[in-house]
């Protein structure tokens, strides 16, 4: 999309414009910093028929499956609450036959996105998995879940996975500018690959910062602005998961969620209260503070531990010195123009 | 009265005008960087300028010394690796790139590797660098030739233009449809590519140059655009920008060396050496 368009918008607008029924949707975050507010908005807007990609399908996958948004799931790890007596939305949906799932290893899942990110059609992965049921048991991808080819250099049989280029990535980061340059630090996981492999990218962030902040710390940028479609500022946008430098995992809220998630009725009640019952993240936070007290939120706010600034400076930022003489030729602009005239080098 | 300009300024400004607002532009050193900086400053403020070394959205303040010169700019927005810069080009996210040319044939295929025999070179040139991959996958490429030559057959085929002309580039299935060189800029004129045959067509001549001056460099029967005109003259604002931003580019390499050597000699004298 053009960088001249305004990309700053609400979660409601961003999901409304960029996430469609039937999309292949990838959760950019994995385990930490889950884009919870964007996920909730997808559910509130009742997207249907999604093929959902999530590196570690924990909190995000449970609510999306519980919300009936997902037909197909591609993941490496699904959460099950409550041990033997417990359960999960994914398990219930598989039993009911309402979702199909493809299992990959963490590495294979990430490799599919890396292939997609670079425009390759497949990626070599670690061949040991060929003896496992990861290789043997296939769901909706069938033969295309994995293919085995001979290495053109060694002749050895190698295992490959197909590239993934999801329609849309939703991802939460610490900060971004209004052009979409998104900065994320901490456990990098598959965040960049998930975003860059995707056709559209919706970024939510704890704060929108000035472009200067981004330009003075470019090595923190994981998604360049020209790739991003929407930027949404959502403080506590990953709660109850954590965002490094902003807040910790909310262990109380997390535990309450998983207790509710043990059965379908419990999850429905939880989602009625926290997803459908809160029109946006402001309402969610208001409800949280009313129920658990503002001090519960304060208790997980991060105390500052800043990284040392890196020096990006140069000796000079102009070809002209303090006396307005060109640094290598030693002439002023007027002198330079006179020489050009004298030498007959000017046209027109 | 409109300002007078050097040939180097004319070339830089003509190239810069090919950049549109919002485009992603890969810059090489020299003319392209100055052209990119001018475009961003004057008519394409939302162009994203990038270098294949992995620095993106740069704001150059002085002309870079090479394609990894982070000293030349005041910050950038994204740092990645060279591998990813090329795969983003492969995926179609680069709109414009610039390539310098040593030999060019009538369909815009280029040689930047060797003059003479590859194994026993008469003149060994840099090679591909980024050229072959950029000319393959950037949406449009602007070729610049200062001191190079037009040939019927390249001594070495470094980077693909329109192959055998016509639809052969698109038909090969190797390149994005519609990609390829869009302009060849030389010290004498501006060439475009015929929409159908993909053959070089002379579109503009620089001031003081005749069509015959150009024809004598070209070993085939050169096509001339029906609306052939003189190269559009630079505006004062453009000329002033180039002189302030890249004075050494504005004066050209020869004069720059002469003045720089004189200057360092004078400094040595002043120190009593």
Question: Would you give an account of this structure?
Answer:
The complex is a heterodimer of chains A (348) and B (273). Chain A has 348 residues and is an alpha/beta fold. Helix content of chain A is 32%, strand content 17%. In chain A, helix 1 (11-18) crosses helix 2, helix 2 (36-44) runs parallel beside helix 3 (59-66) and helix 5 packs across helix 7. The model of chain A has no long low-confidence stretch (mean pLDDT 96). Chain B is an alpha/beta fold. Chain B is globular, with a radius of gyration of 19 Å. Chain B starts with 6 loop residues before the first helix and ends with a helix. At the A-B interface, helix 8 and helix 13 of A face strand 3, strand 4, helix 3, helix 7 and helix 8 of B.
Average pLDDT reading of chain B: 95
Please state the structural category of chain A.
alpha/beta
Q: How does the overall form of chain B come out from the CA principal axes? A: globular
- Please tally the β strands of chain A and state the result: 12
Strand content of chain A: 15-25%
Question: Which stretches of chain A are low in confidence, meaning pLDDT under 50 for 5 or more residues running?
Answer: none
Largest interface: A-B, 47 and 57 residues
Order of secondary-structure elements of chain A: HEHEHEHEHEHEEEEHEHEEHHHHH
Number of helices of chain A: 13
Quaternary structure type: heterodimer
What gap, in angstroms, lies between the N and C termini of chain B? 45 Å
State the shape of chain A: globular
Structural class of chain B: alpha/beta
Radius of gyration of chain A: 25 Å
What amount of the residues of chain B lies in strands?
Answer: 15-25%
From the N-terminal CA to the C-terminal CA of chain A, the straight-line distance is 40 Å
| Lateral strand order in the biggest sheet of chain B | 4-3-2-1-5-10-12-13-14-15
**For the report, how would you describe the main beta sheet of chain B?**
10 strands, mixed
């Amino acid at each position: 999309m053009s960088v001249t368009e305004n990309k700053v918008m609400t979660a409601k607008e961003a999901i409304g414009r960029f996430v469609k029924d039937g999309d292949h949707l990838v959760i950019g975050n994995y385990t930490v910093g889950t884009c919870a507010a964007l996920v909730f908005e997808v559910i509130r807007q009742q997207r249907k028929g999604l093929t959902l990609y999530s590196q570690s399908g924990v909190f995000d996958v449970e609510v999306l499956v519980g919300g009936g948004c997902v037909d197909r799931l591609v993941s490496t790890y699904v959460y099950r609450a409550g041990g033997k007596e417990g359960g999960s939305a994914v398990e219930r949906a598989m039993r009911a036959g309402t979702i199909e799932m493809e299992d990959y290893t963490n590495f294979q899942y990430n490799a599919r996105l890396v292939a997609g990110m670079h425009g390759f059609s497949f990626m070599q992965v670690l061949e040991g998995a060929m003896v496992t049921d990861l290789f043997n048991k296939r769901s909706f991808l069938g033969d295309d879940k994995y293919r085995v080819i001979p290495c053109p250099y060694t002749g050895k049989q190698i295992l490959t996975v197909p590239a993934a280029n999801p329609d849309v990535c939703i991802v939460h980061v610490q900060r971004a500018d209004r052009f979409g340059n998104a900065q994320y630090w901490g456990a990098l996981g598959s965040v960049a690959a998930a975003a860059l492999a995707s056709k559209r990218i919706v970024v939510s962030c704890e704060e929108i910062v000035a472009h200067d902040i981004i330009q003075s710390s470019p090595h923190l940028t994981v998604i360049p602005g020209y790739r991003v479609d929407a930027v949404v500022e959502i403080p506590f946008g990953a709660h109850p998961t954590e965002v490094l430098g902003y807040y910790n995992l909310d262990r109380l809220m997390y535990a309450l969620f998983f207790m509710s998630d043990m059965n379908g009725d419990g999850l429905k009640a939880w989602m009625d209260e926290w997803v459908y019952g809160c029109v946006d993240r402001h309402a969610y936070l208001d409800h949280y503070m009313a129920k658990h007290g503002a001090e519960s939120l304060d208790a997980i706010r991060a105390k500052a531990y800043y990284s040392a600034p890196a020096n990006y400076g140069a000796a000079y930022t102009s070809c002209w010195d303090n006396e307005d003489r060109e640094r290598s030729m030693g002439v002023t602009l007027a002198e330079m123009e006179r020489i050009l005239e004298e030498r007959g080098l000017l046209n027109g | 009265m409109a300002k007078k300009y050097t040939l180097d300024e004319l070339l830089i400004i003509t190239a810069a005008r090919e950049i549109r607002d919002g485009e992603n532009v890969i810059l090489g050193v020299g003319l392209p960087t100055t052209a990119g900086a001018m475009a961003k400053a004057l008519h394409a403020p939302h162009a994203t300028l990038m270098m294949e070394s992995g620095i993106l959205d740069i704001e150059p303040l002085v002309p870079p010394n090479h394609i990894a010169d982070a000293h030349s700019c005041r910050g950038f927005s994204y740092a990645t690796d060279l591998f990813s810069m090329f795969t983003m080009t492969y995926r179609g996210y680069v709109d414009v790139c610039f390539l310098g040319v040593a030999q060019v044939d009538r369909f815009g295929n280029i040689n930047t590797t060797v003059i003479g025999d590859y194994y026993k070179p008469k003149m060994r040139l840099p090679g591909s660098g980024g050229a072959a991959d950029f000319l393959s996958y950037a949406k449009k490429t602007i070729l610049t030739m200062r001191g190079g030559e037009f040939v019927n057959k390249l001594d070495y085929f470094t980077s693909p233009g329109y192959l055998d002309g016509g639809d052969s580039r698109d038909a090969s299935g190797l390149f994005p449809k519609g990609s390829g060189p869009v302009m060849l800029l030389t010290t004498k004129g501006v060439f475009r590519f015929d929409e159908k045959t993909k053959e070089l067509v002379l579109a503009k001549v620089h001031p003081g140059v005749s069509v015959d001056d150009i024809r004598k460099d070209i070993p085939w029967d050169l096509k001339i655009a029906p609306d052939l005109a003189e190269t559009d003259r630079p505006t004062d604002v453009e000329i002033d920008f180039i002189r302030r931003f890249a004075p050494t580019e504005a004066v050209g390499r020869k004069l720059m060396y002469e003045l720089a050597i004189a200057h360092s000699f004078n400094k040595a004298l002043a120190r009593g050496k």
